Structure formats: structure tokens, C-alpha cells
């Protein structure tokens, strides 16, 4: 029996068949003489209930009732018929299709399902510890959100599929579209009109924040704006900006693939992939104590200490939050200790890391994750057969890590609802209570919070225990974003037989060994020995 029919997705034949079923129901007259005139599922119902159950209006009911009484053919529903476009201008139709395909591509490649897209935002006061004042989500054109008409046309509609684009303006995205079709004259009015009508509940531009943005994106947008009088130079900058966005999307697709592999219990080859993404949240959100008393003017100049929160998401396995106070150094030793604790937790769960490849996804910060300390530790784990292989991947600065940034947004919303947190232990208890909810990161069954007071000096240990294998050029412009560490015996034949640069081991004149760890990057065709196995004294040196 038809109910709540979706007119927009039904064909003409389906609509006729559906209306025919309604006419058959209207022909079923009740036996008694009560006020109820229709029968639905052998139950007498009134006209209003009949229309509500079948999702039809009064005028449509009258036409179908007349057809049932007189035996006339079922009248067509005009809502199901294909309507011509409001404009007869073929050029306008072509431009609309171009804009629609472009926005569809942005929706699938560049946008992200951030939590604040479908939730009401909270506006914090000047004091981070003050009670937050909730406000409705406002899409304003000058703030870089949706077109203003979208909020009027789609008010009250479902926005669960709304995704956010990186911060910018409508002119920025229109310039990308114009660079793709330079022969077409695409106006901002038509661009925003199509956006409002077709993507009003699906696509929006993320509101500008104090979070650091990608330097390449910022430079490209400023140059495009300044080169308004030079069309050739402007088109060249737009092409470079498009290439940069394509590279950023390719990074995300690689991350999505590794995330999906990490959630699988086993692969056809028998090996497993452990994908770990790590990042830190803004420490200004963790000022303590947090209380309503700081709304008072007497505490206007009160300086409160902050705490740092680092998150490790091991997809499909667990989530680890490491909270530390401001006097704990957040250097490479801290990150190495947190990573080793995560790997130890996997071993306690029964995971055999010897057959697992570990993929570490972090940002491009050399102080914490992208440094020699982490690379040396990965080489040590690979050479000692603790893991099958180790790969460190670093996204471009300023671009979102998607999963972990969404999680940090949820953490921020949770903290805004907790106004009385007087000590670091209170923050830990609040996070543990929130993580215990089944709706928080359902793919990670184990979620824990650890307060870190001290870390091991891994940087000093690895630097003193290693030979001279210090890597240079891993930071700065043109530096690689991927560091793959494999044992020589596990690499394909053509790679293992390739000429490996022996710069680190040339003074020692050591022969190649299958357990030697070879470093490969994404920007250089040269392979490096990063760990060497010495058989004479059964010693491993990195």
C-alpha cells in the first residue's frame, strides 16, 4: 500500500500504478452506515485518516474519488510529469549543467562531513573558561558559508548530509570553475543560484577560524585576487591552485584506503594493516580551572594554565587520548613514547605485529612527528622484526585530517557543555564519561584517556645509540611527505636489486643483508640504507 510517496523519484508508470492502487481502495465501501467512509487494512477510517495514511491532499483525493465512483480512467498526477526549465535559453542550460557538475565534484572530492555542519554551533565568550552561549547556525554570505537564499529556501529541511568546504569565498570557487571553462562567461549570481537550489542542504563553505591554513592555498588565493588585471598570470595561478587541490585529494584517497584496510580483520594475503592517525588539539580549550566564576570582572586578568591533548586513532582497534600539562615537553620523545604505548596496547589485545604494516598518518610538523627520532624508531622496529614494515605519512600543512579533526570538534563541543572542571583529573573523568557513549567513534571498541606526567628520553637514546645516519632535508619546501621503511628481503626483486646509496655505511664496508632496512621517499628515486644488521656479533645498529 503506498504511503508517503516520493514524487521526485517516481516515474510516470510507477505513479499511475500507485494511483490505481488508491482508486481500488476507494472502491471498497464499508458495509455499515457509520461516518467512516473508507477501508484500510480491513479497518474503517475517516476521510482525513485515509488521506494522512496515504499521503495525498484533499484535491487529489477528490479527483481519485470521482474516478472511483464514475469508473473513469485514473487521472495523472501533474507532480510526476517532467517540467521544462524555466528558461528557454540553451546557453543558460549549458552553464547550469557545468556548475552542477563542478559542485558535485567538490562535494565528493574536497568537502568533509564535519560535525558542526549539522549541529547548532556554540559561541564562546572572550574567556575560554566562561559558560558558552548557544546560538543557531547562521549561513552568511560575507562569512563564507552558503548563499543567503539557501537558508530561506531550505529552512527546516534535513541537513545531515551537509558537508563543508575549506574556508574561502564564493569568488574563490567560481574562479576555479572559470579556469576550467575559460570560454564561458559564468556570473556569480548564476553560480550562487544553482548552489542554493541544488546544493543548499548538501554543501557549504567552512567558517573562517583561527586554525592555521595551508600556506600554498593562502598564497594562491592572494595572488589570484591581486592579479585581477593580468588574465594570463591569473589563469596560471588558478591552474597551480587546482593542481595543489588535486594533490591534496590524492593524499586523502590514500588515507581512506589505508583506513579501510585497517578496519578489516584479515586481508587475502594474510597480512594486516594498522593505520594510525595522530594530532593535537588547541591547548586553549583546556585551560583550567574551568568555572562560571571566571565570568566575573575580578578574574579578568587571571592567567590560567593550559593542558595539551594528543589523540591517536588506530582505526578499527582503539582510540588513545594523552593529556599532559604545559610543563611536559611536546617533542619527538613525547610522540615516540605515545606511539610505542599504542603498539604495546595492540600487542596486549592479541595482535601479532610481526605480520602487520604500521602506517602512521600525521601533520607536517617537524617538532613532533616528522623528525629523525620517529624515523629511527621505525627503522629499529622494522629491522628487529617487531613489525613487518613501517611507513610515516605526513599531510600538507593546514589541510584537514578529516577523522581526527571531526573528533576534535566533538571534543570541543563536549567541553563547552561542561562548565565546572576544576582540575586536570576532572578533565580526564569528563572525557572518560563521554567516550563511554556508544555513539562516540563506534569503529574503535576500546577508548582510553591517559594523563602523562613524564616521558622517556627517546631522542637522546636513539641519537646516542645510533651510528651517523642523520637525515637531512626532511623538512622545508620540497621535502618528502612519505617515508617508507622496508627490509631488503621483503622488497620486490627490481627494488632490492637497485643501487642503494651507501652514504651511511660506506666507511664500514659492510655487505648487504636481507634484514637491512631501506628508506624510500616520495620525492627522490634514491634508496638509503637506514638500518644495518651486523652478523659478526649478533648486533643491530641503526
Automatic annotation (TrEMBL):
Residues 308-485 form the DUF7869 domain. InterPro entries: DUF7869 (IPR057191). It holds the Pfam family DUF7869. PANTHER family: MYND-TYPE DOMAIN-CONTAINING PROTEIN, TRAFFICKING PROTEIN PARTICLE COMPLEX SUBUNIT 11 DOMAIN-CONTAINING PROTEIN. This is DUF7869 domain-containing protein. The lineage of its organism: Eukaryota, Sar, Alveolata, Dinophyceae, Suessiales.
Amino acid at each position: 500500500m503506498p504511503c508517503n510517496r516520493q514524487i521526485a523519484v517516481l516515474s510516470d508508470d510507477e505513479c499511475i500504478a500507485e494511483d490505481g492502487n488508491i482508486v481500488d481502495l476507494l472502491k471498497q465501501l464499508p458495509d455499515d452506515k457509520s461516518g467512516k467512509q473508507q477501508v484500510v487494512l480491513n479497518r474503517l477510517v475517516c476521510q482525513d485518516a485515509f488521506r494522512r495514511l496515504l499521503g495525498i491532499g484533499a484535491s487529489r483525493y477528490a479527483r481519485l474519488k470521482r474516478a472511483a465512483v464514475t469508473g473513469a480512467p485514473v487521472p495523472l498526477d501533474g507532480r510526476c510529469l517532467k517540467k521544462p526549465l524555466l528558461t528557454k535559453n540553451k546557453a543558460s542550460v549549458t552553464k547550469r549543467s557545468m556548475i552542477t557538475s563542478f559542485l558535485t565534484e567538490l562535494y565528493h572530492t574536497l568537502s568533509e562531513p564535519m560535525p558542526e555542519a549539522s549541529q547548532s554551533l556554540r559561541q564562546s565568550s572572550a574567556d575560554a573558561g566562561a559558560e558558552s552561549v548557544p546560538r543557531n547556525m547562521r549561513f552568511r554570505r560575507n562569512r563564507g558559508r552558503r548563499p543567503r537564499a539557501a537558508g530561506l529556501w531550505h529552512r527546516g529541511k534535513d541537513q545531515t548530509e551537509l558537508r563543508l568546504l575549506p574556508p574561502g569565498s564564493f569568488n574563490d570557487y567560481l574562479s576555479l570553475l572559470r579556469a576550467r571553462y575559460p570560454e564561458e562567461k559564468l556570473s556569480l549570481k548564476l553560480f550562487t543560484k544553482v548552489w542554493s537550489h541544488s546544493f543548499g542542504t548538501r554543501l557549504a563553505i567552512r567558517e573562517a577560524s583561527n586554525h592555521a591554513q595551508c600556506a600554498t592555498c593562502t598564497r594562491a588565493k592572494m595572488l589570484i585576487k591581486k592579479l585581477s588585471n593580468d588574465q594570463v598570470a591569473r589563469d596560471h595561478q588558478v591552474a597551480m591552485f587546482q593542481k595543489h587541490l588535486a594533490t591534496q585529494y590524492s593524499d586523502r584517497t590514500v588515507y581512506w584506503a589505508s583506513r579501510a584496510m585497517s578496519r578489516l580483520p584479515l586481508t587475502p594475503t594474510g597480512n594486516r594493516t594498522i593505520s594510525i592517525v595522530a594530532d593535537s588539539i588547541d591547548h586553549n580549550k583546556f585551560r583550567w580551572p574551568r568555572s562560571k566564576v571566571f565570568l566575573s570582572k575580578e578574574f579578568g586578568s587571571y592567567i590560567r594554565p593550559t593542558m595539551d591533548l594528543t589523540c591517536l586513532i588506530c582505526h578499527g582497534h582503539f582510540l588513545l587520548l594523552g593529556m599532559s600539562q604545559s610543563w611536559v615537553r611536546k617533542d619527538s620523545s613525547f610522540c615516540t613514547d605515545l606511539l610505542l604505548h599504542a603498539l604495546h596496547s595492540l600487542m596486549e589485545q592479541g595482535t601479532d605485529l610481526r605480520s602487520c604494516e604500521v602506517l602512521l598518518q600525521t601533520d607536517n610538523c617537524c617538532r613532533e612527528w616528522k623528525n629523525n627520532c620517529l624515523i629511527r624508531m621505525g627503522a629499529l622496529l622494522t629491522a628487529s622484526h617487531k613489525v613487518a614494515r613501517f611507513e610515516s605519512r605526513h599531510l600538507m600543512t593546514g589541510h584537514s585530517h578529516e577523522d581526527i579533526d571531526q573528533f576534535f570538534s566533538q571534543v570541543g563541543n563536549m567541553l563547552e557543555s561542561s562548565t565546572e572542571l576544576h582540575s586536570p583529573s576532572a578533565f580526564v573523568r569528563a572525557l572518560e564519561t563521554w567516550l563511554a557513549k556508544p555513539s562516540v567513534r563506534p569503529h574503535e571498541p576500546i577508548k582510553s584517556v591517559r594523563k602523562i606526567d613524564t616521558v622517556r628520553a627517546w631522542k637522546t637514546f636513539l641519537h646516542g645509540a645510533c651510528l651517523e645516519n642523520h637525515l637531512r632535508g626532511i623538512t622545508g619546501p620540497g621535502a618528502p611527505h612519505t617515508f617508507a621503511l622496508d627490509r631488503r628481503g621483503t622488497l620486490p626483486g627490481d627494488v632490492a636489486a637497485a643501487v642503494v646509496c651507501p652514504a651511511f655505511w660506506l666507511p664500514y664496508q659492510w655487505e648487504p643483508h636481507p634484514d637491512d632496512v631501506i628508506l624510500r621517499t616520495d620525492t627522490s628515486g634514491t634508496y638509503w640504507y637506514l638500518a644495518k644488521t651486523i652478523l659478526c656479533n649478533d648486533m643491530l645498529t641503526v
